[in-house]
Input
Amino acid sequence: MKRLYFSLSIISAYLLMTGCDRPNETNNKDSINEHLIVATLYHQQAAEMKALTYQAYNIARCRLDEKLKGTDNPAGLAIVLDIDETVLDNSPYEAKTILENISYPEGWDEWMNLANADALPGAVDFLNYANQHGVGIFYITNRKEKYRKQTMKNLLEKGFPQAVNEHLLLRTDESSKEKRRNLVSENHEIFLLLGDNLSDFDMIFDKKNSGEREATVKKLRDEFGKKFIILPNTMYGDWLGAIYDYDHSLDNQQKLENYKQNLRGF
Ligand SMILES: [Mg+2]
Output
């Protein structure tokens, strides 16, 4: 009996490996988000993730202190921040997509309506420090306008300062944040930007392929840790979209094949 079971296991494994057993809908669905397990665990379990976030906000504070020394008009200064994976932690949503085999935007409404994402380590302290010194704080996010009320509630309840309508710029017509940054620049000098996605900093990064993104980062390398403060996001972002040429019509299986094709072995 044991031998029969062993033989059947070998045959099943072989069929799966060779692809002869074409996965049906259920098999596909069972594994659609498996690739996100480690990425999401990193956000939720790795103390290194928390350390990186503290590190980002510690650097931001150094830059702020330097800037404050050289100005007598802090109200004319602005710090611009993204929200998701920059000040708020949405990893519970990513975990849910794995545990329940769903894909964005399924379940996103429910997560937004809870308005209970945790603040990322260091973010609240840093922004309250900036607020106490009279610096303008602007949240530029690609959350849709319909989530304004929930987003504001979430920010306020977690202790974020300046979470008021004029300082919360959500997505209306386009995902590029350039126009919204320009709006802030009309009355402020943006001296610091924080984000987890390169497009949070400059339109030069918008919709670029992986090679162009890498080359532009190299070109602007002196800005990181200076004007641009980046936070880690292993779960999603343009870095991942660039791998499959932002073709959002691809299903998860097709995306996964793209990811594998882009691995660099030796
Ligand atoms: Mg983000």
